[in-house]
Amino acid sequence: MRATVIYGAGDVRVEEVPDPKVEAPTDAVVRVVRSCICGSDLWPYSDMPATDRGKRIGHEFLGIVEEAGSEVGTVKKGDLVVAPFVYSDNTCEFCREGLHTSCRNGGFWGSKHVDGGQGEAVRVPQADGTLVKLPHTEDEDLLASMLTLSDVFSTGHHAAVTAGVNERTTVTVVGDGAVGLSAVLAAKRLGAERIVLMGRHEARTNLGREFGATDVVSERGEEGIARVRELTGGQGTHAVLECVGTKPAFEMGVGSVRAGGTISRVGVPQYEEGPIGPYVFRNNITITGGVAPARHYIPELMGDVLDGKYQPGKVFDRTIGIEDVPAGYQAMANREALKVAIKF
Amino acid sequence: MRATVIYGAGDVRVEEVPDPKVEAPTDAVVRVVRSCICGSDLWPYSDMPATDRGKRIGHEFLGIVEEAGSEVGTVKKGDLVVAPFVYSDNTCEFCREGLHTSCRNGGFWGSKHVDGGQGEAVRVPQADGTLVKLPHTEDEDLLASMLTLSDVFSTGHHAAVTAGVNERTTVTVVGDGAVGLSAVLAAKRLGAERIVLMGRHEARTNLGREFGATDVVSERGEEGIARVRELTGGQGTHAVLECVGTKPAFEMGVGSVRAGGTISRVGVPQYEEGPIGPYVFRNNITITGGVAPARHYIPELMGDVLDGKYQPGKVFDRTIGIEDVPAGYQAMANREALKVAIKF
């Protein structure tokens, strides 16, 4: 079968790899119907050291169960299923607490001996705990929205939930990538009435407005902070959803959050140390978030996606076939595409 | 009257200063009965640049109202009152949210034109919002415990509350100073059954055990982290209450907290940047806390102090008169005294 393999920065290839098969009784094999490229895939695409052997990549997919191991009970051959971007058993103490990303038997797609999601099929470990069954559909828009449960919509939701967003909180979303826009939608869904989106790509911020952003701030750094403060009577917003991962993005968050407020980070931090000194302390600013336990959120978010109330799939602005994946990476890296779907 | 003035590192003097008087109709003048020296006073005592004019110092006191301005309604001449370590109006939007430390009309004792608390009397701005009336008593132990409402017990409580401590959380307290020990007591009060105290001064950790610590870890750094993990099945504790303020203390917190857990900082950070990179993100660790809104907590904590159920005043191990304050600073700096009370 064909699958995506990354060999280093700028070097993504689509290659013939062995067909996956059930190896453990808790495995399933899923024939992928839709996958996509993530903003976080662009980090290794920008800085991974070159390797000879390459590494499978991709962590968002939905597809049809082709084979299920003997101990798999919740999904069966022929089911349409979505996989969260981390697999997990859904039974350990961390999963029971809703922190599936710390599952004792879980892990990341594309890690050692584990398939990546940007390929024709995937062996899914801990299939019972990982996969969530969806109704069959041919509706392209619905499939796209279902696919976002795998990562970006769940991740945006994690940012909003951990930041305590509700109808009384004002919100700043830092970043107009797919996660940032999903965070806008998630904040709106949780009742936020004032949502400031920090971003400068008009097509994206327009989608942000459609998703619920009430204000767009295109300035960055100190100017961006000043603008958010100007919009909020000098105070900043109760919640900041930091959806980029760079240190300047976090610093904008610190500058934009209200005293007593919360910055939730869902962009993978590209820094080891950050500004959490006396200013953060004096203002009782909370820093939270992290890698989103998508599996925990899918059951809650699914209903609103299936009935069309929310359409997070609008973040996809390009659909390609598997052979075009290298070009898809390039398009996202060049910011020509917001988020690229892969159709099989 | 006599009051404490700091002129620089190591240079604390007791001097004659003008008697305070009501300046605004919202002021009161309080004749101090008990004050004390705080661990945080030791930061300027260790590193404040020398000045000619000096600066009033001290932020914890209780005393008798001597005069109340015409607009003061909640306390009157003759009342015994306690002042939290930040004054506040108790009516602005931040106060209404319980964040009195961000009060729009509040500020710190010892700042410009505001008296310090280590003196015979204090002009209290925003007296209605700041002061809390207490029953008169001659009981030395009760007076000591009442005095801790001003800062250390409220601060320990803030750490425990913001870290979400309850009967289901395991807790690590970093630091066996007066705030650390108060945090142990506060965690116990909120129901925590497993409280690991990191500290190496036996007299202090013994008081920690009396306050509710179930384990004491005297090791520091990586060894200390390994010990906490060993005590918790490799996981770390749900909550870490960081009561020191140094970067190594925060790093121990990061190493000792469980995935999905919370580090609450109540020690004033002596660093601008801290480790909040990929490890913190991957493990969904929350960093919270800050300068404690003691005024918000006093009404809740007061009952348990007044009826003797909790005796946070045990952190005082030395009582001195006002003229001995310089020696009191030295004793705390030398770690000969845990916390020094000043009796007037």
Tags for this entry?
metal ion binding (chains A, B), metal-binding (chains A, B), Threonine dehydrogenase (chains A, B), seven-stranded mixed sheet, homodimer, Rossmann fold, GroES-like_sf (chains A, B), Quinone Oxidoreductase, Chain A, domain 1, zinc (chains A, B), alpha/beta, 344 residues, globular
Report on this model:
Two copies of one chain form a homodimer. In chain A, helix 5 (152-162) crosses helix 6 (178-189), helix 5 packs across helix 11 (294-306) and helix 8 (221-231) runs parallel beside helix 9 (247-256). In chain A, the strands form four sheets. In chain A, strands 3, 5, 6, 9, 10, 18 and 19 form a seven-stranded mixed β-sheet that branches. The first copy, chain A, has a six-stranded parallel β-sheet with strand order 13-12-11-14-15-17, with helices on both faces. In chain A, strands 2-1-4 form a three-stranded antiparallel β-sheet. Chain A has helices spanning 42-47, 93-96, 127-130, 140-148, 152-162, 178-189, 202-211, 221-231, 247-256, 278-282, 294-306, 325-333; strands at 2-8, 11-16, 28-36, 55-56, 61-68, 80-83, 86-87, 107-108, 121-124, 132-134, 170-174, 194-198, 215-217, 237-242, 257-265, 273-275, 286-289, 318-320, 340-343. Chain A is an alpha/beta fold and 344 residues long. In chain A, helix 12 links the parallel strand 18 and strand 19. Chain A is 30% helix and 26% strand. Chain A contains twelve helices and 19 strands. The longest helix of chain A is centred in the last third of the chain and has 13 residues, at 294-306. Chain A has two domains: 2-151 and 293-343, Medium-chain alcohol dehydrogenases, catalytic domain (Quinone Oxidoreductase, Chain A, domain 1), CATH 3.90.180; 156-289, NAD(P)-binding Rossmann-like Domain (Rossmann fold, 3-Layer(aba) Sandwich), CATH 3.40.50. Chains A and B meet through strand 15, strand 16, helix 10 and strand 17 of A and strand 15, strand 16, helix 10 and strand 17 of B. Strand 16 (273-275) of chain A pairs antiparallel with strand 16 of chain B.
